[in-house]
UniProtKB/TrEMBL annotation:
Lineage: Eukaryota, Metazoa, Ecdysozoa, Arthropoda, Crustacea
Protein name (database record): Esterase
Organism: Daphnia sinensis
InterPro entries: AB_hydrolase_fold, Esterase-like
SUPFAM superfamilies: alpha/beta-Hydrolases
Length: 120
């Protein structure tokens, strides 16, 4: 997309030991949020670190534009967030971290938009 977007990656403590590959969970922020929301706006300060250890997985919290809905705009080339996630971010995470790089193993969970998206 020719722009810089941020993401945070949380690995389990066991990541530094050995060469095991891990499933990856992508946690998406809400419409006016940012990639740090999952780290800063939860009631448990170390929630993501605890979950990464409990479920032995890598957690990625990507940041995209406000009210992006994580889709590709039919009008603006600068708003192609679905393409960014699928063709840029996930391959970069798979290249940089020891993930189980299988399309069927890439779940995501949205911070606030899940209910609204289900309505449509």
């Amino acid at each position: 997309m020719q722009k810089t977007l941020s993401a945070a990656v949380t690995t389990p403590d066991s990541y530094s030991e050995g060469n095991q590959r891990y499933p990856t969970l992508y946690l998406l922020h809400g419409g006016s949020g940012a990639f740090g929301d999952w780290h800063q706006k939860t009631t448990e300060p170390d929630l993501l670190h605890r979950l990464a250890n409990q479920y032995n997985l890598i957690i990625v919290t990507p940041g995209v534009g406000p009210a992006s809905y994580y889709y590709d705009s039919p009008l603006l080339d600068s708003v192609r967030y679905e393409t960014y996630m699928v063709k840029e971010l996930i391959p970069e995470i798979d290249k940089t971290y020891r993930t189980l790089a299988k399309k069927s193993l890439v779940p995501s969970l949205d911070f606030r938009w899940a209910v609204m998206e289900r309505l449509y």
